[in-house]
Amino acid sequence: MPVSGAYTDEAKRLKGEIKKKFKTQVALCQAIGAKDASYITAYVTGKNRIGNILREKLEAVGIDVNYILYGKKGTPELPPPPPDPALSVMLADCTQKIQQLQTAAIDMSKELLELNKLVDTIKKRVFTHSS
Q1: What is the pLDDT of residues 39-83, one digit of tens each?
Q2: Can you say whether the dihedral through the CA atoms of 69, 70, 73, 75 is positive or negative?
Q3: Of 11, 64, 78, 105, which has the fewest Cβ atoms less than 10 A away?
Q4: Cα 59 from Cα 39, distance rounded (Å)
Q5: What is the pLDDT of residue 95?
Q6: Is the sign of the CA dihedral 117, 118, 122, 125 positive or negative?
Q7: String of b and e for 64-87 (b: at least 16 CB within 10 Å)?
Q8: Is residue 96 predicted with pLDDT exceeding 90?
Q9: Comparing C-alpha atoms, which of 70, 73, 56 is closest to residue 20?
Q10: pLDDT score at 1
């Protein structure tokens, strides 16, 4: 079937994906529950563009529809959402609290080390005097 419609690039990519994943258009149509291969004829010839219904069916069987439509593999990258001022404040508060806790933990470790040294000193004196 020649590719000659308004959507020739999409049709070529669709044909390539079908060949790669299903080998034949008939196999793809069976996988998506279509009665026969004529279901996708308008799409593989470039006459029609993939709509929402076919898109869902193709994606359900592992076809990357974004690649077929836009020529890029994977999902399109969306711009990051604008920062929420309340979340920024919460993040700053959490970061500050973490730093305070880390400092407190370091101080406690130092105190424990000093306490262990003191216990060792006491043990040495107790055991040397009792012998």
Answers
A1: 889 899 999 999 989 999 999 999 898 899 888 776 556 677 777
A2: negative
A3: 78
A4: 16
A5: 94
A6: positive
A7: bbebbbeeeeeeeeeeeeeeeeee
A8: yes
A9: 73
A10: 60
Handedness of CA 23, 24, 25, 27 (dihedral sign): negative
8/45 Cα distance (integer angstroms): 7
Structure tokens at 69: 């439509």
Task: Enumerate residues 6+ apart whose C-beta is below 8 A from 39.
Answer: 29, 32
The residue written with tokens 């406690």 in the block is: 108
Cα–Cα distance between 58 and 70 in angstroms, integer?
A: 15
DSSP letter, residue 5: S
- Fill in the amino acid letter for 17: E
Q: Residues 66, 76: contact at Cβ < 8 Å? A: yes
